[in-house]
Amino acid sequence: MAQNGMLLRFDKVSFGYGPQKPILDEVVFSVRRGAKLTLMGQNGSGKSTLFHLITGEEKPEGGQINMEQKPAVALARQVIARDQMKLTVREFFAECFKEKKYDLDLRIEEILKVVNLHAPLDKAVKSFSGGQQARLLLASALIQDPDLLLLDEPTNNLDKEGIAHLTRFLIDYKKTCIVISHDADFLNSFTGGVLYLDVFTHKIEQYVGDYFDAVSQIAVRIEKEEMKNAQLAKEIQENKDKANFFANKGGRMRLLAKRMRDKAEELEEEKVDVRREDKTIRPFVIPSQPNLSGEIVKISSYTAFKNHKLVTRPCAVSMRKKEHLLLAGPNGIGKSTFLESLARGTAKGIEIAPGTSIGYYRQDFSTLNFEHTVYESLSSVMKGDNDHDLRSPAAGFLINSELMKSKVGSLSEGQKGLVAFAQLVLQEPGLLILDEPTNHINFRHLPMIAQALDKYEGVMILVSHVPDFVKQIKIDEILDLGK
Hints:
The chain contains 15 helices and 17 strands. The protein has helices at about 45-55, 90-95, 105-115, 130-140, 160-170, 185-190, 210-245, 255-270, 335-345, 375-380, 385-395, 400-405, 415-425, 445-455, 465-470, and strands at about 5-15, 20-30, 35-40, 60-65, 75, 150, 175-180, 195, 205-210, 295-305, 310-320, 325-330, 350, 360, 430-435, 460-465, 475-480. The protein has a six-stranded mixed β-sheet with strand order 5-6-7-3-8-9, with helices on both faces. Strands 14-15-16-12-17 form a five-stranded parallel β-sheet.
């Protein structure tokens, strides 16, 4: 096959999780060998499901997925599965292969160099930070040497150095790659085309160029569609007016009137559904616990990892109402460990004022009960029992009545993030702890989230590796665990 021949083609592929949750409707698109493409779409549109169709984990209900010469496909998922967390690094990579690899240790050592990670092979996966786990996920796909590499939100939890390393790798990558990400700047550095999964039509739109090129093409298309519909609407009205005029004349004129009405109906069928933009969450406020006063958080020392060992360092941080702290440091330094111990009240060297309500947004959403419905998850944290007081803020996070009935575990990662934010609104915390709150979230929602955090009037401690997001938030102090 030619170097740039067709590697993958979806031919009228349809798929859904029952009649209430369609994902793809007779989707058609193709991927050429060596292409680097972005797969974009609103949270919950089915991007990860499309990847599972490509890997064969899911089977289409209609149409065909054609692959030339049965290429090897590897997927780097968004998160490490819970049942893999107890595995050692060696066991984690062994699961990437159907048969035993006698040179597995050597392969692991070589691939860890590619993702710039030092990871002892006997160390448990769960002991690594979120950013280090992101590198393990990428390495688990690369070690399979695939013809088609699928990356699902690969920049989540990665620090600035990690994103730069991944970007350089993908620029130099010679094989075919499709990436799901909400980081437009990251995507634009290496992709040459966009596959856009429309959550409304369940179709794939294919564009040439980077994300900003796609946005520009979409804007031109919408303008043309609106102009065409406006012209058709004018002709339809003219035909209706003539039909009414001739109908009143009687005799043969009624036949002419019928032709005019038929013409109007034909023109109605020519009108097109103008492409709808992704919905964006509404502006929101995270109410702060009332009657907060005085020193709420005092940090006199903290622990951090240095060469895989915990060290304790002194500091002097005192936080009161309306004060925001940014927790900084590279992947693996211990930021998530710091936040978890703070939320549990087990952190040595840290005092929290008695009676302070804590709202904790974890990057792995483990504060959510995956077996609960969304409604149960939200009602479990709200202060009162007024149903309207629950559903109104939920609707602002695009949580409709159908999603309310869904189990949290069945949601996309982005939708879980929106549920977690809805919980914080209902909870009214005095201390807000946020661990990578931009992960998995559609970038269209981020300005609204940044605005809410900027205006939050309690004490906030934030971890984020997204500078553009952090710039939009009032930060009073930075505690760098690496210094």
